[in-house]
Write a structure and sequence with these properties.
alpha+beta; five-stranded mixed barrel; single chain; 592 residues; four-stranded antiparallel beta sheet
Length: 592
Amino acid sequence: MAAPKKGRSAKAQSRPGRALVLILIAIAALTGGMFASGQTTPRLGIDLAGGTSITLTAKNEPGQPNAINKTNMDTAVDIMNRRVNGLGVSEAEVQTQGRDNIIVNIPKGTNSKQAREQVGTTAKLYFRPVLTTEISGADASASPTPSASGGSKATGKATDKATDKATSSASPSSSATPSATATSQGRVVSDALKAGSSPSAGSSASSSASSGATPAPSGSADPATAKLQAQYAALDCTNKADRAKAGDGAKPSDPTVACGQNSSGQWQKYVLGPAEVAGTDIKKAGAVFDTQSAAGWKVTMDFTSGGSKKFAAITGKLAQNQPPQNQFAIVLDGEVVSDPSVAQSLSGSAEISGSFTQTEAQDLANMLKYGALPLSFKESSVTTVTAALGGEQLHAGLIAGAIGLALVVLYLVVYYRGLSLIAIASLMVSAVLTYVLMSLLGPAIGFALNLPAVCGAIVAIGITADSFIVFFERIRDEIREGRSLRPAVERAWPRARRTILVSDFVSFLAAAVLFIVTVGKVQGFAFTLGLTTLLDVVVVFLFTKPLMTILARKKFFASGHPWSGLDPKRLGAKPPLRRTRRASAPVDTKEA
C-alpha cells in the first residue's frame, strides 16, 4: 500500500506546471473581464474622487413632539443606506451627527443625483379614497372643458386588471365670483365628507351632482369640516408653495387635501378620506417594463396578507360608489401619484402605470421597497467636496507604500539573494490580482477605493512577504539538516503551509470582525485587508510553491550556488545523511 502512495506523491510533485498554468489562466480571464466591463481602474471614494455632502435636519411631526430620538434616527440612517445601495452608488456614507442631523456623503458618479433626491425623501405612502377632485388654479381656466378628469399622472391597476376610468366632479363655472366659487367648493367638500361615510350616500350625492341640482345647505359644519373646506377653496395646485403645504399636519386617520398631476399634465386638487392602506402593508415593489401595452414603465406592488385584506375591503367599498368617489388615490409624501377607479373588490397586488420614465419608476419602487423614513427631513446644507486634499494624501500614501515596498525588496535581495526572485515575482502576481479584482468589484458590488483601503493594501505587502519568508526559512532548516534541495522543498512545504494558513486565518478573522463592527471608511480598510489576505493564500499555493519546485531542479539552486541563497556552507549545513554498512571483522581461517 505504501508504494502506490509514494508514486502518486512523486507524480504530483513532478507536475507543478499545472498550478502555474491554472493561476495564469485565472489572471488572463479576470483581466479580460475587466476590459470587457469597461471599468479598467478601481472606483474612487468621495475622499479621492470628490462628491456631495448633504446635511439633513429632522423635523418634529405634528402631534409627536418626541419623535426625534435615537431609535428613529438610527432607523432613518438604515433606510437611507439601503436606498442608496439599492441604486448602486459606491461608498455612500450615511451617519448621524448630534441629536437631529444626518450627514450623507455621496461620491461623484452616475447615480449620485438620484441618491441625493432619495435620501431625504420621506416616502410615506397611503391609499386614500377620493371624495372629490377638480382641476386647480390656472390649469382650470386653461382647460377646454369645465369638468376635471380624474386621471392623475399615473394610472392605477391591480391584479384583477381594473382599468383607469375617466371621472369628473362638479367644477365651478369660470364666470363665477370668488365668493360664489368658495361657497360652491365648501358645499362640495361638505357633501363629499358626508358621502364618504357610506356607499349609498355616495351614490345619491353623486347622482344629485350629476343632475345639476344644487346641494342643500348642510347647516353649521363642525370646525374640522370648516377648516377642510377653507383649505380646499384656497388651494392652488399650480403654485409650488401651495402644493408643498397641502395636507400639512393631517394624520393618516383624518381627511385631507392634496395635489396631483393628471395624464394631460394639469394639476388637480383633491379632498381625500382617511388612509385605508399604508406603505407598511407593501411586501415588495419593483419597476418593470410593460411590453403588452403602451403603458411603458410601471411599478408593481405586492401586499402583505394584512395589506391584501385592507385593499380588498377599500376597493370593495369604493366599487359601489359613483365617480369620482369610486377612485382611490395613491398618495406619496402628500402628493397624489395615481387615482385609479375600481369596479370590483381587488386584492393581492397592485401596480402604478402611466407616463413614468425608467428612472422615475425605479426611484419610486426603490423607496417603496425599503420603506418610509420615520421622520421628515429638510436639507440644511449641501456642500461639494473636492478631491484635491484626498489626492494629496493619496500621493503621499503611494510614496510611503513605494518606499516600504523598496525596503522589502532590498531586504529580500540582500538576505535571500536568488530566492528573492521568487518573492518579487509572487508580489507582482499578487499586485496584479488585487488591482484587477478591485476594478471588477466596483461595478459588481459597489466597492470604492478610499484612503483607508489604500492603507490596507500597503499593510498587505508585509503579510504577503511574511508568507514567503516562512517558506524559505523552512527550506533552509531542511538544508541545515543535511538534505539536498529537492527533498528539502517537499519536506519544508507541509510545515510552512500550516504556519501560513494559521497566520492568514488570524489576519482574515481580524479583518472580518473589523468590517462587521465598524462603519464608513474603516470598512474599506478591513475589506481590502481581508481581500489581500485571501489572495496571499492563492498566490502561495498556486504560484510560489510550484515555482520553487521547478527552480529546485535547476543547477543554479540545486548545487547551492553562493548567490542562490541556499549555499549549504553559508547555512552551516551538516554532512549529508547517509546510511553506512558496518564492516565485518576479518575471519582468521587458521583459527577457524
